[in-house]
Amino acid sequence: MLFQQPAPGVRMHIMLNRFFSSFHLLPALGLAFVLVSCNEQHGSSAAGASGGAEPPFVPADGSPATSPGSTSVAQSASATPPLSGAPTPDSLHLISPGRAGRLRLGMTEAKLKKVVPAQLLRATTYVDNGQELPAYEMLDAQQPTAPATVLHFIGDSAGGYRLRRIRIYDPQYRTAEGIGVGSPFGAARQNLGLTKVRPTPAGFAAVSGQVQMAWVIDPKSLPAKHPDEMNSADIPPAARITGVLLYR
Fold this sequence. Notes:
single chain, 248 residues, 23% helix, alpha+beta
């Protein structure tokens, strides 16, 4: 049987039904488009994070960026610069708490003789509370005519002797700040702190308990006051240091 074409009115009705029935697919198509777009954006973001993106902060020197607080202040801070015009000591003449060059408070007499050549040591004694104890005058290898450094020993529990005090009169010895014999008293007071001033067997001195050092002051620059009545503020900043004492 031959296929008969529908009448024009019927054909129009069928076309309209097909056209309007396709509208229910539009929301699904729109959702699929949105999902594809989101997936593309997520992929590009992940690639940027794992690819060649720069860190949020790059130091000027090119060193790797670190998180705040990952480097301690002690590690990042530079060494204290010497005072303007002050000599810079070498390692054999550097004064630090408990140390003066190769000398260290508490070292044994035998250790001293190992680190200092015998020709630079002159044996002597000193008296402490009525007891005579060993001491040495140490000459400087670089400047043999410089004032000798005096070393006082005291007995230990092992029956030997250990270094208890170091008296320095050689201007080659300096702290990292450049403070030593010949420096103005004001520089020591400002940079190393002072806890008290008092007479010592080596002379009138300003004591810095924090670093266990004392600074002997030139008596000619002291005010006309009894030593027991003097305090740090009485000593002129320009007064000269004539000796450095290390003690324990």
